[in-house]
Amino acid sequence: MSHELMPEGLWTGDYYNEGTGQSDIFDTLKEECGVFGVFGHPDAASLSYYGLHALQHRGEESAGICVADGENFNYHRGMGLVKEVFDKDKLESLKGGMSIGHVRYSTSGDSRLTNAQPLVFKYREGNLAIATNGNIVNEPKLRRELEMEGSIFQTTSDTEVIAHLIARSPKDFVEAAKDALKRLVGGFAFLLMTNDKLLVASDPNGLRPLTMGRLGDAYIFTSETCALEVIGAEAIRDVAPGELLILDRNGLREERYTEAGRKALCAMEYIYFSRPDSDLNGSNLHSARKRMGSKMALESFVDADVVTGVPDSSISAAIGYAEQTGIPYELGLIKNKYTGRTFIQPSQELREQGVKMKLSAVRRVVEGKRVVMIDDSIVRGTTSRRIVNLLREAGATEVHVRITSPPFKNPCFYGIDTPDRRELIASEKSVEEICREINADSLSFLSPDGLISAIGGYDEHSHKGGLCMACFDNDYPTQIDFNGEEKMGCSC
């Protein structure tokens, strides 16, 4: 994903990614959140620690783990990276065989400790902890109704809404959770834990990824399969849309809280968010991205001397483009991996250099060469222009930009931090106008059919290959009220 220097005045904290939404100086779609759950393992907290570390790319603002030992909760949450929030002593204090964990990137909810997950509540049946990835679209309406009925909210996280819905129900925990989940509209993957139960739920469209694995007799749940690999667990299957899994002393029960809707897994998980060593719907992300690059080459070949990808998410696609065309793949752009949270606000002189803080062009690779630059998307466009100019400054004679997704034209309501539609350059300009705007010699986007084919292709049982592509085609899988009632982004 490209990175951009944001305008003066939008940096409100000490670090570039402190805060929410547009206070980030780099123009990038933000990682959502990551969840990790363990049931039936005596070292549940340590497994969660390693699992969350593998999911760190999905959220860097806060991390937390809550553990149940059958009678009590022990939990710890903090702001920062997993390795900063937890140490040996903290992990050793988290005793129990059942746990849920969370890494968070907030977009709508405030960046503060009270919103760090798992959220923990006192409940009439004992303790209740909740971790989620995604966004409840109708949260403003539900929150207002609950407040009118007397609920007092302690956080700005929409995850708290389901806790109030459960607590106000006269039914037992499982039935109350089912009723609460039925009222939610949006994309979400929930882990709900009491002293003796773990509930796992996916939204009716399967918008957010959630996978079940096994480690010996223990069950593991995670946003991405890469976390299973880290702890040596075996992937079993994805949690189905509208499914509710109930784990307690009687083992695992597979139920439903609602009928499945149109299968619509977020296409951006394939294009950008998930780690390349993860699998989605049985498809490896690195391989899928290579196929995207190959399809891009078939659709929009251009004669050039080298192919390079914008690190890290576009490297796989760049390799695929190079293999298909026979043009050599080279590391023409290098990412500085040590900016992270400790990237202290720079001087104005360095701010003006913007992208050079994050990326460097390799002059000996691109100088005097015609370069094909592969990237996964264009958001506002200013980042792409800076990277194109970076390559030109390093001596590239031509820069041809190839984007391995269709034009990003519409905001996301299901958990991705996106700007207002008016700030998305593809919603306002043609491909030719964007090409001129980013100072490229040519520009092409991958077609919707090419993307679907690269990921897995059409089949008679799935609409658009089972993908949500609303950010490209405005076809939202849930009802959306565009009069301002629905909430964009991810405030889990």
Describe the fold and architecture:
- By secondary structure, the chain is an alpha+beta fold.
- It folds into 2 domains: 31-261, Aminohydrolase, N-terminal nucleophile (Ntn) domain (Glutamine Phosphoribosylpyrophosphate, subunit 1, domain 1); 269-473, Rossmann fold, CATH 3.40.50.2020.
- It contains 17 helices and 23 strands.
- The strands form 6 sheets. The protein has a 7-stranded antiparallel β-sheet. Strands 5-6-7-8-12-13 form a 6-stranded antiparallel β-sheet, covered by helices on one side.
- Helix 5 (159-167) crosses helix 6 (173-182) and helix 9 crosses helix 10.
- The longest helix has 15 residues, at 285-299.
- One of its GO terms (molecular function) is magnesium ion binding.
- It catalyses: 5-phospho-beta-D-ribosylamine + L-glutamate + diphosphate = 5-phospho-alpha-D-ribose 1-diphosphate + L-glutamine + H2O.
- In the C-terminal section; belongs to the purine/pyrimidine phosphoribosyltransferase family.
- Residues 33-250 form the Glutamine amidotransferase type-2 domain.
Topology:
Elements: E1 33-39, H1 44-54, E2 62-68, E3 73-79, H2 82-85, H3 88-92, E4 98-104, E5 119-123, E6 126-136, H4 139-148, H5 159-167, H6 173-182, E7 186-193, E8 198-202, E9 211-215, E10 218-222, H7 226-231, E11 234-238, E12 243-248, E13 251-256, E14 265-266, H8 267-273, E15 279-280, E16 283-284, H9 285-299, E17 306-309, H10 315-325, E18 333-335, H11 348-353, E19 359-361, H12 363-366, E20 370-375, H13 382-393, E21 398-403, H14 425-428, H15 431-437, E22 442-445, H16 448-455, E23 467-468, H17 470-473
Helix pairs in contact: 5-6, 9-10, 9-16
